[in-house]
Amino acid sequence: MQPSIAVVVDQHAEDAAVLRNTRAYLLGASQVRLNHLARLDERLAAHLDGLSVAGAQGWAAAAQALEKPDRGQAFVATVCAIEERDARRLDALLATAEALPESLDGLDSAFGWVSASALRGITGSLLASQDAFRRRVGIVACNLHRVDPGAALAEAVADDDPGLRAQAWRAAGELARRDLLGASVAALSDADAACTFQAARAAVLLGDRGDAVQALLRIAMADGPHRMDALRLLLKLLDLPQALPILRTLTDAPGQAKALVRCVGVAGDPHFMEWLLGRMDDPLLSRQAGEAFCMITGLDLAWLDLECKRPAGFEPGPDDTAGNEDVEVDEDEDLPWPDPVKLRAWWGANAHRFASGTRYFMGERLSADLCVRVLREGFQRQRIAAAQHLCFLNPGTRLFPTSAPAWRQQRWLDASSNA
Fold first, then answer.
1. Are 192 and 166 in contact (CB under 8 A)?
2. Cβ density class 158-178: b for 16+ within 10 Å, e for less
3. For position 325, what pLDDT does the model report?
4. Which of 38, 29, 39 has the alpha carbon at shortest distance from 381?
5. Do 33 and 379 touch, CB atoms closer than 8 A?
6. Which parts of the chain have pLDDT scores under 70?
7. d(CA 382, CA 372)
């Protein structure tokens, strides 16, 4: 291979890995819409196509993942191995991901990126494996494409391996496997914390409003990696009078200021709007309060010129959100700074449109039509919330995959509107 060509191919591999990692961040970003994700996905696809066209040279550039288990490189190498149907290389990547969990997210996301046709035969082989880790990857692949793995899922939720069980319960809820509702409730006593949370999440997505809600409440009231996710689910599920005691516990807990602000936005009660406006005067809470305000009202601060400049000398502190292990990361860096004066004026003119004690989401009372509109037009965090609300409004329906490639999401949205 000529040196100039080698440089180009290596650049394809490097840029694809970087874009994959950027994409992972954007999937939960506050100011990213589906069309923004589509533009990044087009760039990522172009680099992956460049590796495919390069053939053996392309694989050589991508195979660095076997030496350096970075998530992005693992993603690139796994996409190449799947699309080339190279079983030997895929086996090596699976072994690497099992031994080095830091690369696992990259491998998983590759199975979600490639087309369903590229996985024919591969997923079936994984599901039929005697190895729990490979069955776990097979379950993940099916779930990312919203394809029901059938009897393999029912077997996986009862497996001895907790990693497989947790992924199986996640898939059971997101794939609307109502036949597993009873089993998910029975699994709330699982000794593994991740399995307990995923079983509870599956149960509420499938329609349970009893034992699973109580399990989520126990998770939400204790320190742990699933606390914030449990809180968000509960505040969408519970009637507002039932949600108030949860918010009060956050008020009294030290180090939970940001979590409280976010949860107020999830609860959606306009009763707290004046309180949110007050939090906008605190630079450490201002952006989160602005996002919560917008989650309730549906405002776009940048579009409506309701933002202001970053305070001079402001340095973000560590994120104190419950369950966030990387406290050095400011996950809200891209949030706009709300202008408290303008927003107080806006609220003064529009408060009459909102009734206290009623849940609002994106400026309206909850409805399936609203959730579908938000899935089409909203920012990623709003879209994630809309997908969950849609499931809770229609228990036992599949959870819309807001992390799927943008063109696949658009196709599913178009199909739903034509149904």
1. yes
2. eeebebbbbbbbbbbbbbbbe
3. 44
4. 29
5. yes
6. 1-4, 65-66, 317-330, 418-419
7. 11
Q: What is the predicted pLDDT for the residue at 65? A: 59
Q: Are 358 and 269 within 8 A, CB to CB?
A: yes
Residue 395 DSSP code: T
Give the pLDDT confidence score for residue 235 in this predicted structure: 97
Whole-number pLDDT of residue 330: 67
Residues contacting 106, CB < 8 A, separation 6+: 20, 65, 70, 71, 72, 73, 74, 75, 78, 97
Cβ proximity of 290 and 283 under 8 Å:
no
**3-state secondary structure (DSSP) of residue 45:** helix
Q: How many Å separate Cα 15 from the centre of its chain?
A: 23
Whole-angstrom distance, CA of residue 107 vs CA of residue 87:
14
What is the Cα 300 distance to its own chain's centre?
Answer: 21
**Helix/strand/coil percent split, the chain, to 5:** 65, 0, 30
Q: Which two tokens stand for residue 109?
A: 């996301």
Question: Can you give the pLDDT at residue 68?
Answer: 72
